[in-house]
Amino acid sequence: MDFPLVLLYSIALLPLLYLICRYFHRKSFQNCYILDYECYKPTPDRKVSSKFSGEVIRRNKHLGIYEYKFLLKAIVSSGIGEETYSPKMMFEGREASANLTDALLEMDEFFLDSIGKLLERTGIPAAEIDVLVVNISMLAVMPSLSTRIINFYKLREDVKVYNITGMGCSASLISINTVESIFRSSKNVNALVVTSESLSLGWYSGSDRSMILANCLFRCGGCAILLTNKPSLKSKALFKLKNLIRTHHGSRDESYNCCLQQEDDKGITGIRLGKDLPKAATKAFIDNLKEIAPKILPISELLRFIILRFIHKRNSSVPKPKINFKTGIDHFCLHTGGKAVIDAVAKNLSLTESDVEPARMTLHRFGNTSASSLWYVLSYMQAKKRLKKGDRLFMITFGAGFKCISCMWEVVRDLDGENTVWKEFIDEYPKQDLGVNNAFIKKYGWIRDEDPDSFWVPDDFEIPEDDDEIPAIVDHIKSLRSKAKQV
Asked: Quick check: is 364 catalytic?
């Protein structure tokens, strides 16, 4: 072929080559990486022991023996242990009269601790943060909490800011999705996601059982996450986002009404968890899995399921097939909404105890920290050195509305157990026989046998530290009752 003709063809192909190169160049900046994250651990004086839990309950004068029995059953079945954390105002006996100062203090303690540690460890100065996304569902103030962080750390004047409220436990993955969207249209961006929940102004001091459950489940916590789409930082990253799916059933009345902030019949505000909550969660969960499964599972598993499902429809005697999610997932990071939530997800995905161990242990040690719960579960996996290069990590969480959000991460490099919130006590986990060795049963189990008609506890009754003292104290109370009855 003549040289001029070759040159002519080459020139004609140049626009196409330019477009191809431009496409791949832009795509390299659209990846979403987690550089590092820092989970918040409050100070030891904020730990909620079984003794302290009893003291808080006794301070609520709206409660009686029926509510005591209900709360005992709820806390025992919740899977929560004695080392979770609560806001400062509870230890001052002011949970029923908390103010805005208490709520801001709760947030400031987290902001000033975790964000500072994260920036210092990564070597990314605050001036290099281009995007800030803050999600605190139960606290909206002016100036916003995001502005508060900007003031604390002196972020740049052109930082892009997003303040998310009202999204519940699913908020952190909504924040990740927000950052992912920004990364698709902007190059060389560092983003800081700050996720937590404010408990100070959300404490319910009434007696409605559907509203008092939230007091049993939620605890203090938070996480700061640093993300980037800079190709130059890829080697330093921990995780790469592969897929994220959001499912929102807010248009359905039963889903909308199953988790509401409202007033009870006495005018006391709290979060009502309705009877339709499990049903709404299941529907959102199923719809979400239907959408994300084709994106994360191998074709062989999808074909197997389709063929077996076709056979089942033709012949009902053939067992109904189930998708094996383990064919495309190595680790499951589940929201710690409670023992029942973990059990339900484990059953639907056919997970083993090893798969759900990180979620169960996180629930026991830190409780339900709302939107930040997932990151404590992830930190447990990292502390146990489970996460290896190339592993696929599946996150799933639920939120009021009702919402279900899931995503898939790829582990970028082998991760050690350093710099995690678990590092000081990871060797103590996993704990065995949590149901048998429940501290709340040991201290308050006697309440289950009490007669509602004769139940009475002296005003000066003090809950003992030592569980061995309880039988003698209970006998003493019964003796006092008997004498009072005779009089």
From this structure: yes
